[in-house]
Recover the amino acids of this structure.
């Protein structure tokens, strides 16, 4: 009876270690897949936004009601996109490089909103700067997640 004790104990320990390792590996794989899916989703959301199509780089007169309506619609779209970026950040591992890039997207959008509220007539110029920043961040996310992600406004 005690002759097989050590070998039985060794088999039990190896089995327990393998079970924990497989569970941990599966957990990490699921996290990575959820993160990749979240990044793909936000990239697709930004790609379909008409506000992120490069605008004519000129100053405009927002006292014109039609231009003012376009300005307000654009700012609303950027706010909505920012909220979606913040929402997708919840599916990302804390402290990951992907989270840093999503945070950078949110900061870029906040900067646009702040600057465009101070200079509404220059919002087209500011919007082009935002689109360039988002495109750069999307390209970085594409490399980090090894996915071919669409650029912001490319499907708008």
């Amino acid at each position: 009876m005690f002759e097989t004790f050590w070998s039985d104990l060794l088999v039990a320990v190896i089995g327990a270690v393998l079970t924990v390792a497989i569970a941990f590996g599966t957990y990490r794989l699921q996290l990575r897949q959820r993160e990749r899916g979240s990044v793909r989703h936000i990239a697709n959301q930004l790609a379909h936004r008409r506000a992120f199509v490069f605008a004519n780089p000129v100053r405009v007169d927002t006292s014109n009601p039609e231009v003012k309506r376009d300005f307000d619609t654009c700012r609303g779209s950027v706010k909505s996109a920012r909220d979606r970026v913040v929402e997708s950040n919840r599916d990302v591992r804390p402290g990951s490089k992907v989270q840093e890039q999503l945070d950078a997207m949110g900061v870029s959008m906040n900067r646009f909103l702040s600057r465009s509220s101070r200079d509404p007539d220059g919002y087209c110029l500011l919007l082009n700067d935002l689109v360039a920043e988002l495109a750069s961040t999307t390209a970085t996310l594409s490399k980090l997640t090894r996915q071919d992600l669409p650029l912001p406004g490319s499907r708008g």
